[in-house]
């Protein structure tokens, strides 16, 4: 069984940290979805400018391309169901681990994140387009307030059970 896993969620939910831990437990590569953005998107985000659907088209295509090359865990927001549906049309065995946390937790976490490609005001624009993982989408929603180790273990157990 191959592992094409997307750890998804809002900014501050822990996608990168949890994704790395899941990849390590599975013995597969980890890719930070932010690294798959075209340069123009990275520049927009650095300025605090929300991305449009058109901006995200190439990013989603890059995610699909990365998933097509073997077992991998990718941490990426993929907030809209339509983005995840597009991935699902190309990658048959993809599995989503959506990290969920209260807004206050996300805001607190963003206070300490110093990544240059994200600004706290983008959280508001993310919330405006956020679609929770649907019952027909492969994967589960996880409580992102749990420890990294507990989250990673739960994700691996659920992934292997599906």
Structure overview:
The protein is of the alpha/beta class and 162 residues long. The protein has one domain: P-loop containing nucleotide triphosphate hydrolases (Rossmann fold, 3-Layer(aba) Sandwich). It is 48% helix and 16% strand. It is built from 7 helices and 5 strands. It has helices at residues 15-26, 39-46, 53-67, 81-90, 103-112, 122-129, 148-161; strands at 4-9, 29-32, 72-75, 94-100, 139-143. Strands 2-3-1-4-5 form a 5-stranded parallel β-sheet, with helices on both faces. Helix 1 (15-26) packs across helix 7 and helix 3 runs parallel beside helix 4. The protein starts with a strand and ends with a helix. The mean pLDDT is 90.
Give me the secondary-structure topology:
Layout: E1 4-9, H1 15-26, E2 29-32, H2 39-46, H3 53-67, E3 72-75, H4 81-90, E4 94-100, H5 103-112, H6 122-129, E5 139-143, H7 148-161
Parallel strand pairs: 1-3, 1-4, 2-3, 4-5
Strand share of the residues?
15-25%
Helix content: 40-55%
Radius of gyration: 15 Å
Task: Count up the domains.
Answer: 1
Q: How many H/I helical runs?
A: 7
Largest sheet: 5 strands, parallel
| CATH top level class name | Alpha Beta
* Low-pLDDT segments, ≥5 res: none
Order of helices and strands: EHEHHEHEHHEH
Sheet/helix structural class: alpha/beta
What's the architecture in CATH terms? Answer: 3-Layer(aba) Sandwich
CATH superfamily: P-loop containing nucleotide triphosphate hydrolases
Overall average pLDDT: 90
State the CATH topology. Rossmann fold
Q: Using the alpha-carbon principal axes, give the shape.
A: globular
- Oligomeric state of the chains in view: single chain
Number of strands: 5
Terminal CA distance reads: 11 Å
């Amino acid at each position: 069984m191959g592992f094409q896993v997307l750890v998804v969620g809002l900014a501050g939910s822990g996608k990168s940290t949890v994704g790395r831990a899941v990849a390590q437990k599975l013995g597969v590569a980890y890719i930070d979805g932010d690294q798959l953005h075209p340069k123009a998107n990275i520049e927009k985000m650095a300025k605090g400018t929300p991305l449009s659907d058109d901006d995200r088209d190439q990013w989603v295509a890059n995610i699909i391309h990365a998933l097509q090359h073997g077992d991998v865990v990718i941490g990426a927001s993929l907030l809209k169901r339509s983005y995840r549906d597009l991935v699902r049309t190309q990658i048959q065995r993809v599995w989503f681990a959506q990290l969920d946390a209260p807004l206050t937790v996300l805001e607190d976490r963003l206070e300490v994140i110093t990544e240059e490609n994200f600004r706290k005001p983008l959280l508001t624009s993310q919330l405006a387009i956020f679609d929770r993982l649907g019952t027909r989408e492969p994967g589960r929603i996880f409580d992102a307030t749990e420890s990294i180790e507990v989250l990673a273990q739960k994700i691996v157990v659920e992934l292997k059970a599906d």
